[in-house]
Amino acid sequence: MEIGLNHYLVLATILFGIGLYGVMRRKNLLMLFFATEILLNSVNIGFAAISHYYADLTGQMFAFFVIAIAASEVAVGLGLLIVWYKRHNSIDLDEMSVMRG
Amino acid sequence: MLEPVNVSLESLNLMTLAPMLIPIVGALLILVVDLFKSNIDKSLYVMLSILFLFTDFMALAGSSSAFMQNGTLLGLFDVMLVDGLAIVSQFIIVVASMLFIPLALTSKRFHEFSYPEFFALFLFMIAGFQFMVATDNLILIFVGLETASLSLYTLIAMHNREKSFEAAVKYFTMGALAAGFYSFGSMIFYAVTGSVEINQIATVLVANGFSDIGFVMVGFAFILASFAFKLSLVPFHTWAPDVYEGSSAAMAGYMSIVPKIAAFIVAMRFFEFLIHSGLVWVEAILYVFVVVTMTAANLWALVQTDVKRMLAYSSISHAGFAMAAVMIGTTQANTALLLYWVLFTFTNLGSFSMLWISRQKKMLPGQNSDHSYEKFAGLVQSSPMAATIMALFMLSLAGVPPFALFWGKMYLISAAVTSGYTVLALIMALNSAIAGYYYLKLIVYMFMKDPVDSRYEKVIGSNLSLSLKTIIGIAAVGTIFAFIAVDPLLQAIGGFVYNSGY
Amino acid sequence: MFEAISFYLFSFLVIASFWVAVTTSQALYALTALAAGMILISGFYFTLGADFLGAIQIIVYSGAVLALYAFGMMFFDTTREVKEKKPNKAIVTTLAVLAAVLTVAIVAAPIVSQNIVALYPSVESVGNTQQIGVVLFTKYLVPFEVAAVMLLVAMIAGIVLAGKKMDISLTKLSESEIEKQNAEELV
Amino acid sequence: MEKYLYIALFAPLVSSLFSALFTAQKKKQFVGVIASLLIFTAFASSTVLLVHILNGGEPIHVTLMTWMATGGLNIPFGFVVDEVSVVMMMVVTLVSTVVHIYSNGYMDHDKSFNRFFAWLSAFVFSMMVLVMSDNYAGLFIGWEGVGLCSWGLIGFWYNKESATWAANEAFIMNRIADLGMLIGLFLVYWNTGTLQYEEAFAAFPGLDHATLVWIGIFLFIGAMGKSAQFPLHTWLADAMEGPTPVSALIHAATMVTAGVYLVIRSHPLYDLIPNVGLFIASLGAFVAIFAASMALVNRDMKRIIAYSTLSQLGYMFAAAGLGAYWVALFHLMAHAFFKALLFLGAGNVMHAMHDELDPFKMGALKEKMKWTWIMMTIASFALAGVFPLAGFYSKDAILEVGFVEHHYIIYTVLLVTAGLTAFYSFRLVALIFHGEDRYTLFGIHPHEAYKFMLWAMSPLLILAIIAGAFQHTFFELVEEALNAVHYHIHSHVTLWIMIIGTQAFVLASIFYAYKKYARKGIKVPDGTSETEQSFLYKLLYNQYYIPYFYDEYFVKPYRELSSIFWKKVDLKVVDATVDGIAKVLYSTGSATRGMQSGNLSTMLRWMVVGLVVLLMIAVAVGLAARYSAELSQFLAGLGV
């Protein structure tokens, strides 16, 4: 059985779906951020696979930059969480709805 | 073995990079200055920022004259793309930034302005936006977008109040989701075309006659979702009101202008070849987005009790209005969008600055939001000048002639009519009429109600300083005398847009 | 055959570990599962011939990002079980499944386009890392430099937000209180 | 000559800006004086221009600058002084000069004296832009400008709840109508590619009839809003909350006639669509009698005059709708003079009576306010159309138009309205100035207005008397521009019968009004009636119950009808519709704002919802495209 590009794309989509599920379901902000990492990783699998099957390096480049972006997002996200936690002693997003309407 | 790479320096067109490098250098300089001597007054950093932005402006003027002579320029292995759209949008970004940064010179001290990092991040953010508009490489767009967004989240949080953290976290989380959408969409397009450059994608897709229409539509769905988030189109808009409320008025005003124009340019580059290739569904989807965004945001704005939230919803509605131009996609419509945004910049600069001058450090007991309508009740009695100027901006937002936004609306609607979108033009006109109602509501509060609470009288204008007065003056002059500038502006923008083939 | 086995094995493992990462109520389990998933993903990269990417995946993700998260978890003290108010599960599941199924419905079909030309073709005889190096420092030089700026921004942001400076809000203090604050700082 | 055009146009702007400088300060007398002088300058320049045009000079056409000129949209900022606009300029500048001078006295004690002049002059400027523009875009800008200024002036006393409400009502109702007008302008632009009057008019005959009808209808919707035609008329009466000089300037002489001006300006359009014209005329006639009927029973001095304005606007539309544009313009001019005079007189009375508006609480003021009495009486005669005053010529011309064009129903309605007009005008005059004084009960000591205010009013008085004599000159002036024709009734006998009959009818109405209301013993109606018991007394007192009979079978049903019109049609139907629309919009907003719950989880879920919806469409399109062959085969198999 030959593994083709579509197999990888389906895998990427399934992982993306898991990430979406996590993003919508998680109330703990830290664990919500885990889910966003899954989103980006699933895309990277897709890029690497396309890059392989087309014998083109651009996909690997994109994946490379996605990793860099994910790393920067972690830094900023954790920074925000730390400030929030210092004030509220909680990182539950249900406690974060002062503004509405 | 790999061939050694030989690149001649001329073929790189290093000049295309100059406008972005200037703010980066500026930001680094600010950080270095802070290293050597801390506790310098913020006015120095403001002046440094303006200086670098002005240099940036001059560099842009240089590249615009180069564009006039040679047409679109590619640089650095064809990653940089300096066409008319890039130049006009960068002008808007830089000028808007120059006008907004002096708002830091308030008479009261706020947390963010006490730190030089604020100004460094501000300049980095501008560079990020500039990269975003001056390329058609999806990778560079992504990196530029993230540079700008990460700075923006931090700038919002640095205001250092409960609400600003809430706003920053919300914006950040939703932004991370949108980044996921964007990368997935790019992946799909890469899978179909083997390229991550918009013009390549377009060429390949047109060459094979959109044979993978399913893939294209799915990719379009993801990319649209991510830009709909940036442009705050319904239902991806939910961050906007909260983030506007949570950040300082100056920042909120800035957010209503600059990130959106950058996103509009990318949307224009990306969606127009799809529309022009005759994908009816793309057009239909955008049509629905435009109409729903304009109308729903208007209805929500009607029921707001806080002026800043009202303005947030109003700018969502304005974004929907401008998005119509992207959907129509003719040269006239694209010109109209840029013109609209220039005029919108002045009006929104004014209206948010007016909120900014009445900013309190702490809310008074019993006060629920920073800029409630009650705060402005009977403003005409305590300071008729402020009330008149605020009313002026509201009238401009409502599109009452001859103030600035009237011309933008008029030109955009006429672009819709000439392209045969009569129903859309009608909906746009109808929405302007609804919008008039909530802008009028503020005017009614200011001119026709009695002051609700005498404490508010001292608050309004408490944040005023000479530089803020100057900015508001510039905004007011821009709003009133727009009618003189509209025609030359239109000629210039139209030339840029037409010559870059949009 | 080997390729198929490794693909299905890795797929199963990655999906399982990410599933654990988004469903478990133990933050520590979630973190461990996430780390496992990340490392397993690098397996795909190696089979796909993207060696450099695989290495980066392990170093940056598992090394840097997850270490950051681990520090975060210690700071937030979420190593114990986390109570989360459960949202309406049906909606969440439906939405996620719908999004995945709809996308799968399209991407499962083969791509019919014929004229896909590799713009930066990989060469068999040269190592992956070398090739990456060449492309990265020619074509993607500008994005690379901008990524550097982005990381600098992230660093500044992290320092500003997590540093001591944000403990007191000058935004909320009155002018006289700020003066007092400054005086104390000097002492 | 261009110099005078610029002076006429920009002197009011200068005046407004000058006054605006002092808005924040206490009353400064010189602000009013300088504003009045500047407006007078505009008036003088207009006069020079009028003389120029009268002497057969060419229309003056200037293009100040170009606002927009790309992509097929060309909006020059041009102005024209031709036969039509010069008449409007004269009316606007003359009345506003008078009103400015008058306001110096009227607003004497108001703390916002300076602000008043800023708004008032801004209004004059907008009105000048409206009438002098040589294209629809400029007209629309002036149109919005006058709307804005009128909003500021109606709500001038913003501390009064009712004034604020009235200002907003006027503004919103006008915005609704403006939307119609905007659509009309877009249709014009779309179909002719220009907004210049001359070019558009040249292009109209080439368009198909349905398009022209739509353009005509939408433009007229705009006119209906500004000129307060049914069903958008309610704001005008409520707008009387503003200061009285404002009512005289805006709600009698200038702004409300902008709608008529629009129809006259667009006459090449309406000439092509006589059906729409007939509709306009019928609506005008209906409004004329409808408004007059409401004026009959009202007990608010300013509202009575406002209803009368409405009724007279109906006359103008009737004439314009029937194609007699010059007659409409002539009546517009004449009406401006005597109605402004009437309003200013009412202002004097209000001042004297400390803002009392109920004429039943006045009476016998003619001894105290002789000049006001004379002026208002003459204005009322002019309004009623008594020979040889201004109103006689203009109103008679309208009646003749109806007769000559064989629209006898319109003619009859307008004739009856003429009688009603005479009645309510003199009911008002009689109640205010005649009979015995009823004001001392309320502790009021009236006094005549300042001398200079009366002097200021005198030009209007003179014009109200003599304007009719210029009918012929006027005809010659606009003959060419408006394709004017004389409306001659061929039989002299019919003509004389008509004129004398009308005059007799009007005079009888006046006489009846005097008889009924100028007598002594009129009580302030208070709802309780103490009738004597004796049958004979009752019979005599009630004049053999004939009045009772009339009252019961004519007046009372009539009054009922009027009040039904006012209460049911006006308040219920029209207001409720406006309120209803607002309410629906508002409640949709509140109902859906739950989307913004402020919870991050919900917000993220909304984003995914958006994505899923997009994906659904994408997948549907993708699958349909992929299986299009199978699909069409399947459908073919089904026999589709």
Describe what you observe in this structure.
- The complex is a heterotetramer of chains A (101), B (502), C (187) and D (640).
- Chain A is an all-alpha fold.
- Chain A has a single domain (5-96), classed as Helix Hairpins, CATH 1.10.287.3510.
- Chain A has helices at residues 5-25, 29-54, 58-88.
- Chain A is elongated and about 55 Å long.
- The mean pLDDT of chain A is 88.
- Chain B has 502 residues and is mainly alpha-helical.
- Chain B has one domain (14-360, 372-500).
- Helices cover 75% and strands 1% of the residues of chain B.
- The mean pLDDT of chain C is 83.
- Chain C contains 7 helices and no strands.
- Chain C starts with a helix and ends with a helix.
- Chains in contact: A-B, A-C, A-D, B-C, B-D, C-D.
- Chains B and C meet through helix 5, helix 6, helix 7, helix 8 and helix 9 of B and helix 4, helix 5 and helix 6 of C.
CATH architecture of the largest domain in chain C: Up-down Bundle
How many individual helices of chain C? 7
CA-atom Rg of chain C in angstroms: 24 Å
Rounded average pLDDT of chain D: 80
- How many domain modules of chain C? 2
Short description:
The complex is a heterotetramer of chains A (101), B (502), C (187) and D (640). By secondary structure, chain C is mostly helical.
How do the helices and strands line up, and which of them pair or pack?
The complex is a heterotetramer of chains A (101), B (502), C (187) and D (640).
Chain B: H1 9-12, H2 18-36, H3 42-70, E1 73-75, E2 80-82, H4 84-100, H5 116-133, H6 138-157, H7 162-193, H8 198-207, H9 213-230, H10 239-246, H11 249-276, H12 280-302, H13 307-328, H14 331-357, H15 379-382, H16 384-398, H17 404-418, H18 422-448, H19 455-459, H20 466-480, H21 482-499
Antiparallel strand pairs in B: 1-2
Helix pairs in contact in B: 2-3, 2-5, 3-4, 3-5, 4-5, 4-11, 4-14, 4-21, 5-6, 5-11, 6-7, 7-8, 7-9, 7-10, 9-11, 10-13, 11-13, 11-14, 12-13, 12-18, 13-14, 13-18, 14-16, 14-17, 14-20, 14-21, 16-18, 17-18
Chain C: H1 2-23, H2 27-47, H3 51-76, H4 89-107, H5 128-137, H6 141-162, H7 175-186
Chain D: H1 2-21, H2 29-54, E1 60-70, E2 73-81, H3 83-106, H4 113-132, H5 136-154, H6 161-192, H7 197-203, H8 209-226, H9 234-238, H10 244-253, H11 258-265, H12 267-272, H13 274-297, H14 301-321, H15 325-352, H16 370-384, H17 390-404, H18 408-433, H19 451-466, H20 471-478, H21 492-517, H22 535-541, H23 546-592, H24 600-626, H25 628-638
Antiparallel strand pairs in D: 1-2
Helix pairs in contact in D: 1-2, 1-4, 2-3, 2-4, 3-4, 3-10, 3-15, 3-19, 4-5, 5-6, 6-8, 8-11, 10-15, 11-15, 13-14, 13-18, 13-23, 14-15, 14-17, 14-18, 15-16, 15-17, 15-19, 16-18, 16-19, 17-18, 18-21
